[in-house]
Amino acid sequence: MTHPWLHTPAAQVATAARAMLGWTVSANGVSLRLTEVEAYAGTGEDPASHAHRGPTPRNEVMFGPAGNIYVYFVFGMHWCMNIVCGHEGEAAAVLLRAGEVIDGIEVARERRNHPPDRDLARGPARLVTALGLGRDANGTSAVDGFGPVLLTPPSTPVTPALIAAGPRVGVTAAHDVPWRFWLEGEPSVSPYRRHTPRRRPDALTGGVRPPLAL
DNA sequence: AGGGTGATAAACT
DNA sequence: GTTTATCACCCTA
Question: Which of the nucleotides lies closest to A51 (Cα–C1')?
Answer without folding.
Answer: C5
